[in-house]
Amino acid sequence: MLPEPEGGAPRAARVLAGVLIFAAASAVTVYLRAPMIDDIVCDLDIGATAYSTQFLTEPGSIYGNAIETKPPGTYILFHLLFSLFGRTMLSVNGFSIVYHLACLLLVFLIALRTSGFGSAAVAALLYAGYSTSVVTHGVCPNFETWTILPALGALYVLLIAFTQSVQRKSLIVLAGALAAVSASFKQPAALLGAAFLIAAAKLAADAPSRRKVVGVGESLGLFAAGAFAGAVPYIVILAAYGGLGAAWNALNPWTYRSYAGFDAEFLQMQWHEFIGPFLWKTKILLVLAALGLLRWPRTAESPRTNYGPGAVLGNAYLAASVLAVFSGTKFYDHYFILLIPPLCLTAARFFGRVFDAENWLRRVADFVVVLTLAGAAVELRLEEKVAAEAVTRIAASGRSDLVDESELFWSHSPTLRFSALSRRVKELGACLRDHSAPDDKLYVWNYIPALYFYADRRAPTRQFMYFNVAVNLPPGSGRWHTEVNDLVLSARRELINNFRADPPLYVVYFAKHRTDIPWLHFTLQTEMFDELRRFVDDRYDVDPYCTDQYFVVLRDKERMP
What we know:
59% helix; four-stranded mixed sheet; mainly alpha; single chain; 4 strands; globular
C-alpha cells in the first residue's frame, strides 16, 4: 500500500507519492485546526502574553512593566505577528496553522530518513491528527507549541550531521542554536536541548573512526557555541530597551523559591482532568510508540534497525519531552503537546521495521496501517466534530465563532470553553474601550488577562494578574502562594502604591456564585486582599454602561458620567 524508496521505484514516482502524502496530512492539519480561524484567545495564558507583548520595545521592556514568568521568545513572536498582520489574535492563530504544517514536514522528513517512506507517511498522518487532540489543547498555540518546530529542527540537523559521510561542524552549531530558540519559548524545553547535547556526544563517541570528524569534546563545544549564539538575539533585544536586568530578576530560578509546590488536591485534579484523559485519548499512539521502542532482532530482510543515530536522537527527544512535561509541580493539558512529535517519530520506527519485512508481513503491515489510522480517527472524533462545525460557520460568516452552549460546547474541549469566554471578554473590552480614553487604566481581578488586550487599556501596575498578590487560589490556577510571605507582601505594597498614584478607571472581576458557567475553575471568585478591597469599595461603583452577567464592572466614582 505504501511504497518504500529502497524498492527501486523511479525517483519521480517516489517524489510524487511523498507530495501526495504530505498534501493529505496537510489537509487533515488545516481541517482539524479550522476552529482557530478566528479572533479568539483560546487559552487564558495567551491573553496575558498578548497584553505584555506591547512592552517589548518600551523602556524597562516586558519584565520591567509586567509580572511575567516565561522566556521572551513568545513575546517577540507575537510582536512580529502583530506588526506584520495587525493586532488581532487571528494573526497568531492563523500563523499557528502554518507553523504546524512546518512541524508536520519535519516529522515526515525525520521519519523518512530514519524509518522509510511508509512509516514517514504514517507518522505524518498521526501528527496531523493527534497534535489537535483536545486532551493536549492542541489547536491552541500555547507556549509549548512554539517549542516544537525548533526542537524538531535541532533533531533533524543533528541526524544529518551524524549520518553524512562527511560531518559538517556547522550543522552541530545550528542544532545548538535551534535548541536555544526552542527554550526561548518555555523553560522546560531546555531539557530537550540538554538531551540533544548528550545524544550528540554519544553519537560522536560511537561514530566509526573512518568518518569521525569531531570528537566528543568538540561536539559538545560546537553545540554549546550554537546555543549561546541562539540566545544572543534575545539578550540584545532585551538590553536595547533596558530590560535585561528585569528579565534576569523574573526568570532566574531563585525567583520561584516561595511558590507553592506539590499539593495532594491539585495533583488529584490534574490526574482526573489532564493526565488520565491524555493516556486514554492517545492510547493507540502510545501503544505504537511502545512497540517502536522495542529492540527487535536484526534480520537480512530488515536492514534498518533502532540502533542507529535516529534511534539515539529519537529516544533522547522522547525522554526529554516526558521530563519537560513533568519537570514542575503542575501538569496542565497543554503541556502534553510536547509529547506528540516524539511519540509519532517513535511509532514510525515500529512501522519502519514492519515495512522492511518479508512480503507476507508487508501485507499485514498494510492492514495494520489501515486499522491504526481508522482507530486514530475514532479517537479524534470529537476533534473532527468540532472542526466540521467550525468549517460550517466559517463558510457562513467567515469565522468559526464557536460560542453556542450546546452539547458540543459542553464536551471536554477547552478550546470551545475558552473561545466562548473570549467572545464575551472581547465584547466587554470593546465597551470599556468605547467609554474610556486611551490613557485610562484598567485593572482585572481574577484571571481574565485577555480583557486588557481587547480593551486596549493598560493596568496601573506590573501586578496586572492576581497570582503574586493572592493566596490559596483555586486549584486549577496553580496556587502560586499558599501563605502570605515576603514576596506576596511586597507585591501587595507595590500594587496598592500604584493604585494610589494612578487609580484605574475600571476594576473588573468575575461575578460570584455563578456555578452555571462552564469556564472551568477560573470563574471561582478569589477574594481581594483586605487593603485592595477597602480601596475598591471606597472609590468604585457599578459602571452604568458596560455590563455582563458573568462579570462585575466597577468604575471610579470620581469619573462617573
